[in-house]
Amino acid sequence: MAKTNKISDKKKAIRVIDVSKKFKLVYDKPYTLKERLVFWNKTKTGYHEVLKHVNLDIQKGETVALIGVNGSGKSTLLKLMTKIIYPNEGKIEIDGKLTSLLELGAGFHPDFTGRENIYFNASIFGLTAAEIDSRVSDIIEFSELGSFIDNPVRTYSSGMYMRLAFSVAINVDAEILLIDEILAVGDQHFQEKCFNKLKELKESGKTIVIVSHSLESIKDLCDRAVWIYEGEVRMDGNCSKVIEEYLKVCG
Amino acid sequence: MIKELINNLYSYRQLLKSNVQKEIRGKYKGSFLGVLWSFVNPLLMTLVYAIVFPLILKNTEPHYITYLVIGILPWNYFTTVISQGTTTVLANGGILKKVYFPREILPLSVNLSGVINFLISCLVMCLFLVCSGIGFSWAIVFFPLIICIQFLLQQALIFITSAINVYVRDLEYIINFIISMLFYATPILYSKEMFAGSALEWVIQLNPIAIIINSYRDIFYYQTTPDISFLLIVFAVSLIILYIGLMVFRKLEKGFAEEL
Fold this sequence. Notes:
The structure holds two protein chains of two kinds.
Chain A: E1 12-26, H1 33-38, E2 45-59, E3 63-67, H2 74-82, E4 89-94, E5 98-101, H3 114-124, H4 129-143, H5 158-170, E6 176-180, H6 188-203, E7 207-211, H7 215-221, E8 224-229, E9 232-238, H8 239-250
Parallel strand pairs in A: 3-7, 3-8, 5-6, 6-7
Antiparallel strand pairs in A: 1-2, 1-4, 8-9
Chain B: H1 2-11, H2 13-28, H3 37-56, H4 64-91, H5 93-96, H6 105-131, H7 143-167, H8 171-184, H9 201-206, H10 208-220, H11 228-253, H12 256-259
Helix pairs in contact in B: 2-6, 3-4, 3-6, 4-6, 4-7, 4-8, 4-10, 6-7, 7-10, 7-11
């Protein structure tokens, strides 16, 4: 869970203030010293501006969807919120414990058992041993892995792996959840279960920011949608209205 | 800045713990001897030097094998931490790109798992000290102090090297070269007296790891007080480098996820 910053406005969970992010585009990236010395002024660098002066406030308890076509900057925005990457301009303020489910199974070690990996994975999210102890049975139950939990993770099928990873992430119990396109985990039954769990989290007052292309489930889950188009906020408001407009242009 | 770092590390203490566990257990996972390799490895190394070196150099030390072990173990600790520490950020690129956690945990856990391994392998040293009849003296009270100084020095260095290695990947090869040079500039196989009066004496006198290894020798082999003033200089220098290292790491960590 990321460190908490103070936000003067107590109702806001996330404030994105005038944030711009560029990625360096380097053709023939110099990785070694030789390349750096030989080509020190020859590397062609360009910049790709992924986000352009984005402003976004997310209230506590809100469930917000970020939609947009591939490459519009949605995932970059999520990564900036988790502090995996940092903005070139502007700043981002977070109030509350934040967990990101950007990619599942971060730090799973194939030789360790499912149970050991629960401890390792949950500790990456910033939980202490005692906190994990109290959640471990919930996590195992949610994953439906049963006795497989004490087998090494390398023996798991990909579905089992994802189920375990999702179960850890969803049970971390953060105040702010950032989710990137991971609703499509496992079979129909497990997907529904995940979806219901998200609804439950929403009702318990968590702030959720979700990036997804499955517009139907977004409509069902979120109160607000933000349409990001070429690095800028194109439309922000009621979920079904934004999706309607989005489909007109991009559908 | 320091307070913030400590708070941050404290709230992620479980990650630090399980990372250290993973480094130690993961290292020997799948091997038959497991953690026993922490004993066997330095033992075999010592054996090789003990057989080969008396043929090349005339050694004057009465218990040469014990003398060797006391030098080789801390040296092993040093080289493992420096070479693993330099590559640790690169090696963990996968996790770095997926989740946020205090990045300082990576180099810190390399050093911590190193010191645990070193302490385990010190049992070999105790074995030799007892078997050779040298035994132990009160000078052993300096042991924790020397370990702390070595730990700090290494931590300072790998904060810098691990961060820079993400951007300039030659660094790990340069470091490996420097380590193998340093091996000869450190009195591990020979005693520092052999260089006394020669043109290269200053190399040993300025080499911080030589000062540390000589201190281990002093307390275990010669059973006297180590050279406290030299140790304190190494300590002060380590603290300064540690501060610089933290600044460098802080500055460079913001770009880790993009460079990897």
